[in-house]
Amino acid sequence: QLFGYVGIEAVLDQMKIKTMKTGFEFNIMVVGQSGLGKSTMVNTLFKSKVSRKASQPNQEERVPKTVQLQSITHVIEEKGVKMKLTVTDTPGFGDQINNENCWDPIIKYINEQYERYLREEILITRKRKIPDTRVHGCVYFVPPTGHWLRPLDLEFMRRLSKIVNVVPVIAKADTLTLEERAEFKQRIQEDLKTHAISVYPQEDFDQDPDDRALNDRIREKIPYAVVGADQEHQVNGKRVLGRKTKWGIIEVENPAHCEFPLLRDLLIRSHLQDLKDITHNVHYESYRVRRLNESNRP
């Protein structure tokens, strides 16, 4: 509209229109033992069959000998906004008797994506938009043991939190009572503090007091106790996502039943752009500096 009101907020409209035209990318990795509901959780998160479907092949294929990473890319469109979503699954992580160095393939994959981006960035003639395959968030599924974190969990998060945003969650939280869940959460938080493991959202990267206040509330509740489900059930005349048991239906989107809505808010509604910014400005930047220093050494 010509000769209409002109204000600085018009810049926001321009940015919105441009983003809607170009779309954006979001890459998420899910890590945990087999049977903790990683694929179901991702499908619940985006309300689509975006993760690999559970197959029932022979025993050798079902439990791979090594951690073979599988990436699946989808383009999700909602209200005219396109999102290129890449889900990386890690079947076989922590399933072996000897889990020594089972995180190496995951670290290698994450660094390969940084390397791919770096190679595109240092070209003389660069693309206008460099394809972004870097992992923006890693959701780590902790088994619902109700005890302490296992040495495997601690070692994984200690190594991975230095190169990617790690969001720990308690998988299949409906197997714990409310008291067990609260105690398990407290123990996990103590473990992370004792071993100086900085999971997302990291305190060091809070920009202003408002961010710090919001992130402090999130940090109090992490790890989220989540339940995933990709089947709908009838509850009080409404169709809800949930798990049907003998004694009732666990509604995954009901905060009184589990903390899945809090995880979805963190990953999509409030912190999706922040996950991407920290990946670019902190994790990728430290990788870039290290690689350029290596190449400059005589």
Automatic annotation (TrEMBL):
GO molecular function, one term: GTP binding
Predominant cellular place of this UniProt entry's protein: cytoplasm
PROSITE patterns for this protein: G_SEPTIN
BP terms from Gene Ontology: cell division
GO cellular component entries: cytoskeleton
Pfam families, per database record: Septin
Domain Septin-type G: from-to ranges: 22-294
Subcellular location: Cytoplasm, Cytoskeleton
Top-level taxon: Eukaryota
Keywords: Cell cycle, Cell division, Cytoplasm, Cytoskeleton, GTP-binding, Nucleotide-binding
PANTHER family: SEPTIN
The protein, known as: SEP12 protein
Protein's organism: Nyctibius grandis
